From TrEMBL:
UniProt protein name: protein-disulfide reductase
Keywords assigned by UniProt, alphabetized: NAD, Oxidoreductase, Repeat
Compositional bias annotation for Basic and acidic residues: 49-61
Transmembrane segment boundaries: none
EC main group: oxidoreductase
Organism whose genome encodes this protein: Eucalyptus grandis
Region annotated Disordered, chain positions: 49-88
Pfam families for the chain: C1_2, Thioredoxin_8
InterPro entries, per database record: C1-like_sf, DC1, Nucleoredoxin-like, Thioredoxin-like_fold, Thioredoxin-like_sf, Thioredoxin_domain
Residue ranges constituting the Thioredoxin domain according to the UniProt record: 97-230, 261-416
Biased composition (Acidic residues): 62-73
Length: 489
Protein backbone atom coordinates (compact mmCIF):
# COMPACT_ATOMS: atom_id res chain seq x y z
CA UNK A 1 0.00 0.00 0.00
CA UNK A 2 1.38 3.38 -0.88
CA UNK A 3 0.93 6.51 1.13
CA UNK A 4 -1.02 8.65 -1.25
CA UNK A 5 -2.92 10.90 1.06
CA UNK A 6 -3.31 14.31 -0.39
CA UNK A 7 -2.58 13.07 -3.88
CA UNK A 8 -5.94 11.41 -4.36
CA UNK A 9 -8.78 13.00 -6.20
CA UNK A 10 -8.85 16.74 -5.73
CA UNK A 11 -11.80 17.29 -7.98
CA UNK A 12 -12.34 20.94 -8.64
CA UNK A 13 -14.71 20.71 -11.55
CA UNK A 14 -17.67 23.03 -12.18
CA UNK A 15 -20.10 22.90 -9.27
CA UNK A 16 -21.76 25.90 -7.68
CA UNK A 17 -23.59 26.97 -4.57
CA UNK A 18 -23.38 24.85 -1.48
CA UNK A 19 -21.57 22.09 -3.31
CA UNK A 20 -18.78 24.35 -4.50
CA UNK A 21 -18.30 25.75 -1.03
CA UNK A 22 -17.98 22.31 0.45
CA UNK A 23 -15.54 21.28 -2.25
CA UNK A 24 -13.36 24.24 -1.57
CA UNK A 25 -13.38 23.02 2.00
CA UNK A 26 -12.37 19.64 0.79
CA UNK A 27 -9.49 20.94 -1.28
CA UNK A 28 -8.18 22.92 1.67
CA UNK A 29 -8.65 19.87 3.78
CA UNK A 30 -6.41 17.87 1.52
CA UNK A 31 -3.73 20.48 1.74
CA UNK A 32 -4.22 20.52 5.49
CA UNK A 33 -3.82 16.78 5.54
CA UNK A 34 -0.53 17.01 3.77
CA UNK A 35 0.45 19.61 6.29
CA UNK A 36 -0.30 17.33 9.15
CA UNK A 37 2.99 15.66 8.53
CA UNK A 38 5.93 17.52 9.97
CA UNK A 39 8.99 17.49 7.83
CA UNK A 40 12.21 17.30 9.80
CA UNK A 41 12.43 20.16 12.23
CA UNK A 42 9.75 22.22 10.56
CA UNK A 43 7.54 24.45 12.62
CA UNK A 44 3.87 24.07 11.77
CA UNK A 45 2.97 26.04 8.68
CA UNK A 46 -0.58 27.12 8.07
CA UNK A 47 -2.14 25.21 5.14
CA UNK A 48 -2.89 28.39 3.25
CA UNK A 49 0.66 29.56 3.60
CA UNK A 50 1.79 26.26 2.14
CA UNK A 51 -0.69 26.65 -0.69
CA UNK A 52 0.60 30.13 -1.44
CA UNK A 53 4.10 28.77 -1.37
CA UNK A 54 3.24 26.05 -3.82
CA UNK A 55 1.68 28.56 -6.16
CA UNK A 56 4.71 30.83 -5.95
CA UNK A 57 6.97 27.91 -6.55
CA UNK A 58 5.01 26.91 -9.65
CA UNK A 59 5.17 30.41 -11.06
CA UNK A 60 8.86 30.70 -10.34
CA UNK A 61 9.67 27.46 -12.11
CA UNK A 62 7.41 28.36 -15.03
CA UNK A 63 9.15 31.69 -15.40
CA UNK A 64 12.52 30.05 -15.20
CA UNK A 65 11.49 27.58 -17.85
CA UNK A 66 9.97 30.04 -20.27
CA UNK A 67 12.71 32.63 -20.07
CA UNK A 68 15.79 30.45 -19.91
CA UNK A 69 15.61 29.07 -23.42
CA UNK A 70 18.23 31.18 -25.22
CA UNK A 71 20.95 30.83 -22.66
CA UNK A 72 20.15 27.17 -22.34
CA UNK A 73 20.97 26.42 -25.95
CA UNK A 74 24.26 28.11 -25.50
CA UNK A 75 25.06 26.09 -22.40
CA UNK A 76 23.98 22.86 -23.97
CA UNK A 77 26.02 23.41 -27.06
CA UNK A 78 29.08 24.21 -24.97
CA UNK A 79 28.61 21.00 -23.08
CA UNK A 80 28.30 19.16 -26.35
CA UNK A 81 31.45 20.74 -27.68
CA UNK A 82 33.27 19.66 -24.58
CA UNK A 83 31.94 16.16 -24.86
CA UNK A 84 33.41 15.77 -28.32
CA UNK A 85 36.67 14.23 -27.29
CA UNK A 86 38.75 16.99 -25.68
CA UNK A 87 38.82 15.08 -22.43
CA UNK A 88 41.39 17.22 -20.69
CA UNK A 89 39.87 20.47 -21.72
CA UNK A 90 36.46 19.17 -20.65
CA UNK A 91 37.72 18.58 -17.17
CA UNK A 92 39.21 22.02 -16.73
CA UNK A 93 36.34 23.91 -18.27
CA UNK A 94 33.43 21.84 -17.06
CA UNK A 95 32.24 24.06 -14.24
CA UNK A 96 33.31 27.26 -15.94
CA UNK A 97 31.03 26.61 -18.88
CA UNK A 98 28.14 25.93 -16.52
CA UNK A 99 28.63 28.35 -13.68
CA UNK A 100 30.45 31.37 -15.10
CA UNK A 101 29.01 33.81 -17.61
CA UNK A 102 30.65 35.99 -20.25
CA UNK A 103 31.09 38.84 -17.75
CA UNK A 104 31.56 36.80 -14.59
CA UNK A 105 34.11 34.14 -13.68
CA UNK A 106 33.35 33.99 -9.96
CA UNK A 107 30.79 32.79 -7.41
CA UNK A 108 29.89 34.44 -4.12
CA UNK A 109 30.88 33.17 -0.71
CA UNK A 110 28.35 33.61 2.13
CA UNK A 111 30.18 36.77 3.22
CA UNK A 112 29.91 38.20 -0.29
CA UNK A 113 33.54 37.72 -1.36
CA UNK A 114 34.32 36.34 -4.81
CA UNK A 115 35.56 32.80 -5.41
CA UNK A 116 36.80 31.92 -8.88
CA UNK A 117 34.73 29.23 -10.60
CA UNK A 118 37.87 27.38 -11.68
CA UNK A 119 38.57 26.71 -7.96
CA UNK A 120 35.82 24.11 -8.17
CA UNK A 121 37.74 21.90 -10.58
CA UNK A 122 38.24 18.43 -9.15
CA UNK A 123 35.26 18.79 -6.82
CA UNK A 124 31.95 17.03 -6.76
CA UNK A 125 29.53 19.94 -7.06
CA UNK A 126 25.94 20.11 -5.83
CA UNK A 127 23.79 22.74 -7.55
CA UNK A 128 21.29 23.68 -4.90
CA UNK A 129 18.05 25.18 -6.21
CA UNK A 130 16.29 26.70 -3.23
CA UNK A 131 14.40 29.73 -1.91
CA UNK A 132 13.99 31.19 1.54
CA UNK A 133 10.20 31.64 1.21
CA UNK A 134 9.58 27.89 1.02
CA UNK A 135 9.84 26.06 4.33
CA UNK A 136 10.90 22.65 2.93
CA UNK A 137 13.92 24.47 1.49
CA UNK A 138 14.75 26.07 4.81
CA UNK A 139 14.45 22.68 6.49
CA UNK A 140 16.63 20.95 3.93
CA UNK A 141 19.26 23.66 4.45
CA UNK A 142 19.87 22.32 7.95
CA UNK A 143 20.27 18.76 6.69
CA UNK A 144 22.56 19.77 3.84
CA UNK A 145 24.62 22.11 6.05
CA UNK A 146 25.34 19.31 8.44
CA UNK A 147 26.49 16.96 5.67
CA UNK A 148 28.50 19.76 4.06
CA UNK A 149 30.34 20.63 7.27
CA UNK A 150 31.16 16.97 7.85
CA UNK A 151 32.49 16.54 4.33
CA UNK A 152 34.61 19.68 4.73
CA UNK A 153 35.97 18.34 8.03
CA UNK A 154 36.91 15.11 6.22
CA UNK A 155 38.53 17.26 3.52
CA UNK A 156 36.34 15.65 0.88
CA UNK A 157 36.30 17.53 -2.39
CA UNK A 158 32.69 18.64 -2.31
CA UNK A 159 31.15 22.02 -2.92
CA UNK A 160 27.63 23.38 -3.12
CA UNK A 161 26.48 26.22 -5.34
CA UNK A 162 23.22 27.88 -4.38
CA UNK A 163 20.97 28.82 -7.29
CA UNK A 164 18.50 31.21 -5.75
CA UNK A 165 14.79 31.52 -6.43
CA UNK A 166 14.44 34.20 -3.75
CA UNK A 167 12.17 37.13 -4.32
CA UNK A 168 14.65 39.96 -3.95
CA UNK A 169 18.25 40.76 -3.20
CA UNK A 170 17.81 41.32 0.51
CA UNK A 171 16.00 37.97 0.89
CA UNK A 172 18.84 36.34 -1.05
CA UNK A 173 21.52 38.03 1.05
CA UNK A 174 20.02 36.99 4.32
CA UNK A 175 19.29 33.44 3.13
CA UNK A 176 22.74 32.95 1.61
CA UNK A 177 24.45 34.30 4.72
CA UNK A 178 22.87 31.41 6.64
CA UNK A 179 24.55 28.89 4.30
CA UNK A 180 28.19 27.81 4.43
CA UNK A 181 28.60 27.43 0.64
CA UNK A 182 28.85 29.43 -2.59
CA UNK A 183 26.15 31.02 -4.72
CA UNK A 184 25.50 32.35 -8.20
CA UNK A 185 25.07 36.13 -7.72
CA UNK A 186 21.42 36.99 -7.28
CA UNK A 187 21.52 39.55 -10.09
CA UNK A 188 22.60 36.96 -12.68
CA UNK A 189 19.09 35.90 -13.67
CA UNK A 190 20.28 34.54 -16.98
CA UNK A 191 22.64 32.01 -15.45
CA UNK A 192 20.12 30.92 -12.83
CA UNK A 193 17.41 30.36 -15.40
CA UNK A 194 19.76 28.55 -17.75
CA UNK A 195 20.81 26.15 -14.98
CA UNK A 196 17.26 25.49 -13.96
CA UNK A 197 16.37 24.66 -17.52
CA UNK A 198 19.53 22.74 -18.25
CA UNK A 199 18.78 20.36 -15.37
CA UNK A 200 14.97 20.27 -15.73
CA UNK A 201 14.38 21.58 -12.23
CA UNK A 202 10.69 21.07 -11.58
CA UNK A 203 10.46 21.76 -7.88
CA UNK A 204 12.52 22.98 -4.99
CA UNK A 205 14.47 22.11 -2.94
CA UNK A 206 16.47 20.38 -5.66
CA UNK A 207 20.10 19.28 -5.45
CA UNK A 208 21.75 18.32 -8.74
CA UNK A 209 25.05 16.53 -8.28
CA UNK A 210 27.79 16.91 -10.89
CA UNK A 211 30.95 14.83 -11.04
CA UNK A 212 34.26 16.66 -11.54
CA UNK A 213 35.21 14.86 -14.73
CA UNK A 214 32.01 13.17 -15.79
CA UNK A 215 30.08 14.89 -18.49
CA UNK A 216 27.80 12.03 -19.38
CA UNK A 217 24.14 12.68 -18.76
CA UNK A 218 23.77 9.49 -16.73
CA UNK A 219 26.41 10.64 -14.26
CA UNK A 220 24.34 13.67 -13.30
CA UNK A 221 22.15 12.96 -10.28
CA UNK A 222 19.04 15.03 -9.80
CA UNK A 223 17.86 13.42 -6.58
CA UNK A 224 20.54 14.87 -4.31
CA UNK A 225 17.92 15.95 -1.76
CA UNK A 226 16.68 12.39 -1.35
CA UNK A 227 20.22 11.00 -1.25
CA UNK A 228 21.34 13.42 1.45
CA UNK A 229 18.22 12.68 3.50
CA UNK A 230 18.74 8.98 3.12
CA UNK A 231 22.48 8.47 3.39
CA UNK A 232 23.92 11.76 4.63
CA UNK A 233 27.68 12.01 4.04
CA UNK A 234 27.81 8.30 3.31
CA UNK A 235 26.53 9.11 -0.17
CA UNK A 236 29.76 10.90 -1.09
CA UNK A 237 31.15 10.91 -3.78
CA UNK A 238 27.67 10.30 -5.25
CA UNK A 239 28.87 7.99 -8.01
CA UNK A 240 26.66 5.21 -9.37
CA UNK A 241 29.03 2.65 -7.85
CA UNK A 242 28.82 4.25 -4.41
CA UNK A 243 25.04 4.41 -4.53
CA UNK A 244 24.72 0.80 -5.67
CA UNK A 245 26.99 -0.20 -2.80
CA UNK A 246 24.82 1.74 -0.32
CA UNK A 247 21.67 0.17 -1.70
CA UNK A 248 23.15 -3.30 -1.34
CA UNK A 249 24.21 -2.54 2.23
CA UNK A 250 20.79 -1.16 3.02
CA UNK A 251 19.02 -4.18 1.59
CA UNK A 252 21.24 -6.44 3.64
CA UNK A 253 20.55 -4.44 6.78
CA UNK A 254 16.81 -4.75 6.23
CA UNK A 255 17.02 -8.45 5.54
CA UNK A 256 19.04 -9.03 8.68
CA UNK A 257 17.31 -6.60 11.00
CA UNK A 258 16.22 -7.84 14.43
CA UNK A 259 14.78 -6.02 17.42
CA UNK A 260 18.21 -6.15 19.00
CA UNK A 261 20.07 -4.75 15.99
CA UNK A 262 17.47 -2.00 15.65
CA UNK A 263 16.90 -1.00 19.24
CA UNK A 264 19.94 -1.98 21.35
CA UNK A 265 23.38 -0.44 21.36
CA UNK A 266 26.71 -1.59 22.83
CA UNK A 267 25.94 0.08 26.16
CA UNK A 268 22.15 -0.27 26.31
CA UNK A 269 19.97 -3.36 25.98
CA UNK A 270 16.75 -1.91 27.42
CA UNK A 271 14.02 0.57 26.58
CA UNK A 272 12.27 2.96 28.92
CA UNK A 273 9.05 1.61 30.38
CA UNK A 274 6.58 2.76 32.97
CA UNK A 275 7.47 0.22 35.63
CA UNK A 276 7.50 2.18 38.91
CA UNK A 277 10.65 0.50 40.21
CA UNK A 278 12.93 -0.44 37.33
CA UNK A 279 11.54 1.82 34.63
CA UNK A 280 13.34 -0.41 32.12
CA UNK A 281 12.22 -3.14 29.73
CA UNK A 282 14.79 -5.46 28.11
CA UNK A 283 14.82 -5.28 24.31
CA UNK A 284 15.01 -9.08 24.25
CA UNK A 285 11.53 -9.26 25.80
CA UNK A 286 10.03 -7.82 22.61
CA UNK A 287 10.88 -10.83 20.46
CA UNK A 288 7.69 -12.51 19.27
CA UNK A 289 5.58 -9.34 19.47
CA UNK A 290 4.26 -7.14 16.71
CA UNK A 291 6.05 -3.85 17.31
CA UNK A 292 5.19 -0.30 16.25
CA UNK A 293 7.97 2.29 16.11
CA UNK A 294 6.26 5.63 16.60
CA UNK A 295 8.36 8.53 15.30
CA UNK A 296 7.00 11.77 16.68
CA UNK A 297 7.75 14.77 18.87
CA UNK A 298 5.89 17.04 21.18
CA UNK A 299 6.48 20.06 18.94
CA UNK A 300 4.80 18.22 16.05
CA UNK A 301 1.12 19.20 16.17
CA UNK A 302 -0.08 16.36 13.93
CA UNK A 303 1.84 13.98 16.17
CA UNK A 304 0.14 15.42 19.23
CA UNK A 305 -3.22 15.16 17.53
CA UNK A 306 -2.65 11.56 16.49
CA UNK A 307 -1.37 10.45 19.91
CA UNK A 308 -4.72 10.17 21.82
CA UNK A 309 -6.13 8.18 18.91
CA UNK A 310 -3.14 5.85 18.93
CA UNK A 311 -3.38 5.47 22.72
CA UNK A 312 -7.02 4.44 22.48
CA UNK A 313 -6.34 1.99 19.65
CA UNK A 314 -3.29 0.58 21.42
CA UNK A 315 -5.48 -0.13 24.43
CA UNK A 316 -8.19 -1.75 22.31
CA UNK A 317 -5.63 -3.98 20.59
CA UNK A 318 -4.06 -4.95 23.93
CA UNK A 319 -7.48 -5.71 25.33
CA UNK A 320 -8.43 -7.92 22.39
CA UNK A 321 -5.12 -9.80 22.73
CA UNK A 322 -5.69 -10.35 26.45
CA UNK A 323 -8.93 -12.11 25.59
CA UNK A 324 -7.23 -14.50 23.15
CA UNK A 325 -4.66 -16.57 25.08
CA UNK A 326 -1.66 -17.42 22.93
CA UNK A 327 -2.19 -14.47 20.57
CA UNK A 328 0.97 -12.58 19.59
CA UNK A 329 1.39 -9.51 21.76
CA UNK A 330 1.64 -5.91 20.60
CA UNK A 331 3.91 -3.10 21.75
CA UNK A 332 4.85 0.39 20.64
CA UNK A 333 8.16 2.20 21.08
CA UNK A 334 8.27 5.99 21.00
CA UNK A 335 11.16 7.25 18.87
CA UNK A 336 11.40 10.86 19.94
CA UNK A 337 12.55 13.93 18.05
CA UNK A 338 11.86 16.12 21.07
CA UNK A 339 14.15 19.07 21.45
CA UNK A 340 14.63 18.92 25.20
CA UNK A 341 14.28 16.43 28.00
CA UNK A 342 11.37 18.24 29.64
CA UNK A 343 9.26 17.90 26.46
CA UNK A 344 10.23 14.27 26.18
CA UNK A 345 9.36 13.58 29.82
CA UNK A 346 5.98 15.26 29.64
CA UNK A 347 5.13 13.39 26.42
CA UNK A 348 6.31 10.06 27.80
CA UNK A 349 4.01 10.58 30.78
CA UNK A 350 1.06 10.72 28.35
CA UNK A 351 1.70 7.44 26.57
CA UNK A 352 1.28 3.90 27.87
CA UNK A 353 4.04 2.36 25.73
CA UNK A 354 7.86 2.18 25.76
CA UNK A 355 10.43 4.67 24.53
CA UNK A 356 14.01 4.94 23.41
CA UNK A 357 15.85 7.20 25.87
CA UNK A 358 15.82 10.91 25.00
CA UNK A 359 18.62 11.84 22.60
CA UNK A 360 19.73 8.23 22.08
CA UNK A 361 21.94 7.89 18.96
CA UNK A 362 19.73 5.00 17.76
CA UNK A 363 16.91 7.48 17.10
CA UNK A 364 18.79 8.94 14.20
CA UNK A 365 19.92 5.56 12.93
CA UNK A 366 16.33 4.35 12.92
CA UNK A 367 14.98 7.42 11.14
CA UNK A 368 17.56 6.88 8.42
CA UNK A 369 17.10 3.11 8.29
CA UNK A 370 13.37 3.49 7.69
CA UNK A 371 13.82 6.64 5.63
CA UNK A 372 11.45 8.59 7.87
CA UNK A 373 11.14 12.07 6.41
CA UNK A 374 7.76 13.04 7.81
CA UNK A 375 6.50 12.67 11.33
CA UNK A 376 4.36 11.35 12.88
CA UNK A 377 5.17 7.99 11.34
CA UNK A 378 4.33 4.51 12.57
CA UNK A 379 6.59 1.75 11.27
CA UNK A 380 5.30 -1.72 12.08
CA UNK A 381 7.66 -4.68 12.61
CA UNK A 382 6.58 -8.31 12.70
CA UNK A 383 7.37 -10.71 15.58
CA UNK A 384 10.61 -11.65 13.79
CA UNK A 385 11.79 -8.04 13.67
CA UNK A 386 11.25 -7.63 9.89
CA UNK A 387 9.38 -4.61 8.52
CA UNK A 388 5.67 -5.17 7.92
CA UNK A 389 4.73 -1.65 6.82
CA UNK A 390 5.86 1.94 7.11
CA UNK A 391 2.27 3.16 6.76
CA UNK A 392 0.97 2.17 10.16
CA UNK A 393 -0.42 5.63 10.75
CA UNK A 394 -2.56 5.64 7.59
CA UNK A 395 -3.76 2.12 8.35
CA UNK A 396 -4.78 3.16 11.87
CA UNK A 397 -6.63 6.16 10.43
CA UNK A 398 -8.41 3.93 7.93
CA UNK A 399 -9.21 0.84 9.91
CA UNK A 400 -8.59 1.73 13.57
CA UNK A 401 -7.89 -1.36 15.71
CA UNK A 402 -9.10 -3.56 12.86
CA UNK A 403 -5.77 -2.87 11.11
CA UNK A 404 -3.88 -5.05 13.58
CA UNK A 405 -1.47 -6.82 12.87
CA UNK A 406 -1.07 -4.63 9.75
CA UNK A 407 -0.02 -7.50 7.47
CA UNK A 408 -0.93 -7.88 3.78
CA UNK A 409 -3.12 -10.84 4.72
CA UNK A 410 -5.00 -8.75 7.27
CA UNK A 411 -5.56 -5.93 4.78
CA UNK A 412 -6.77 -8.32 2.12
CA UNK A 413 -9.28 -9.79 4.53
CA UNK A 414 -10.46 -6.29 5.50
CA UNK A 415 -10.96 -5.41 1.84
CA UNK A 416 -12.93 -8.60 1.25
CA UNK A 417 -15.08 -7.78 4.26
CA UNK A 418 -15.70 -4.27 2.95
CA UNK A 419 -16.62 -5.65 -0.49
CA UNK A 420 -19.05 -8.03 1.16
CA UNK A 421 -20.68 -5.22 3.11
CA UNK A 422 -20.89 -3.02 0.03
CA UNK A 423 -23.01 -5.62 -1.76
CA UNK A 424 -25.91 -4.60 0.44
CA UNK A 425 -25.56 -0.88 -0.31
CA UNK A 426 -27.69 1.06 -2.81
CA UNK A 427 -25.85 2.10 -6.03
CA UNK A 428 -26.76 5.71 -5.41
CA UNK A 429 -27.87 7.85 -2.50
CA UNK A 430 -29.31 11.27 -1.77
CA UNK A 431 -27.36 12.60 1.20
CA UNK A 432 -28.61 15.35 3.49
CA UNK A 433 -25.23 17.10 3.37
CA UNK A 434 -25.09 17.51 -0.42
CA UNK A 435 -27.45 18.63 -3.17
CA UNK A 436 -26.43 16.14 -5.90
CA UNK A 437 -27.01 12.45 -6.05
CA UNK A 438 -24.02 10.42 -4.81
CA UNK A 439 -22.77 7.26 -6.54
CA UNK A 440 -21.27 4.24 -4.81
CA UNK A 441 -17.63 3.84 -5.92
CA UNK A 442 -14.78 1.50 -5.04
CA UNK A 443 -11.05 1.50 -5.75
CA UNK A 444 -11.73 -0.11 -9.11
CA UNK A 445 -14.56 2.22 -10.15
CA UNK A 446 -13.08 5.66 -9.69
CA UNK A 447 -12.61 5.59 -5.94
CA UNK A 448 -9.42 5.57 -3.90
CA UNK A 449 -8.18 7.14 -0.68
CA UNK A 450 -10.26 10.16 0.30
CA UNK A 451 -11.20 12.49 3.13
CA UNK A 452 -14.83 12.16 4.13
CA UNK A 453 -16.61 15.50 3.65
CA UNK A 454 -18.94 14.61 6.49
CA UNK A 455 -16.70 13.39 9.34
CA UNK A 456 -13.34 14.68 8.01
CA UNK A 457 -11.70 11.29 8.62
CA UNK A 458 -9.71 9.34 6.02
CA UNK A 459 -11.42 6.70 3.96
CA UNK A 460 -10.50 4.09 1.34
CA UNK A 461 -12.30 1.38 -0.55
CA UNK A 462 -16.01 2.02 -0.84
CA UNK A 463 -17.45 5.54 -0.77
CA UNK A 464 -20.33 7.68 -2.02
CA UNK A 465 -19.01 10.19 -4.51
CA UNK A 466 -20.61 13.12 -6.35
CA UNK A 467 -19.15 12.70 -9.83
CA UNK A 468 -19.89 16.35 -10.60
CA UNK A 469 -18.00 17.98 -7.79
CA UNK A 470 -15.92 15.40 -5.98
CA UNK A 471 -17.91 15.53 -2.76
CA UNK A 472 -17.23 12.19 -1.09
CA UNK A 473 -18.39 10.47 2.11
CA UNK A 474 -18.04 7.16 3.91
CA UNK A 475 -21.02 4.86 3.35
CA UNK A 476 -21.59 5.04 7.12
CA UNK A 477 -21.79 8.83 6.97
CA UNK A 478 -24.64 9.06 4.47
CA UNK A 479 -27.76 10.60 6.04
CA UNK A 480 -30.92 10.32 3.97
CA UNK A 481 -32.03 13.71 2.68
CA UNK A 482 -35.06 14.84 4.64
CA UNK A 483 -34.41 12.42 7.50
CA UNK A 484 -31.53 11.39 9.70
CA UNK A 485 -31.44 7.65 9.10
CA UNK A 486 -28.13 6.17 8.00
CA UNK A 487 -27.29 3.42 5.57
CA UNK A 488 -24.43 1.01 5.58
CA UNK A 489 -22.55 -0.48 8.49
ZN1 LIG B 1 -17.25 9.96 7.19
ZN1 LIG C 1 -22.18 17.53 -6.24
Amino acid sequence: MTDEWGRGRVVLRSGAGAGATRIAGRAVLRVALRMRRCRGASPFVHPLERERERERERQEVEEMNSEGADRDDETTSRVEVTSNGHAEKVSSSRFTSLLASKDRDYLLSPTGSQVTVSDLEGHVVGLYFSANWYSPCRNFNCVLSEAYEQLKTNQSKFEVVFVSADEDLSAFNSYHSSMPWLAIPFSDLESKKALSRRFDVEGIPCLVILQPDGNKEEEILRNGVELIHRYGVEAFPFTRERLEELEREEKEKHENQTFTSLLSSHDRDFLLGHHPVTGQVPVASLVGKTLGLFFSAQWCLPGMKFTPKLVSIYQKIKHAISERPGAEDFEIVYVSSDRDRASFDSYFALIPWLALPFGDPKIRTLARHFDVQDIPCLVVLGPDGKTVTKHGRSLINLYQEQAYPFTEARLESLHRQMDEEAKGLPRSELHAGHHHELTLVSDSTGGGPFICCDCDEQGAGWAYLCVDCGYEVHPKCVRAAGGDSTVGP
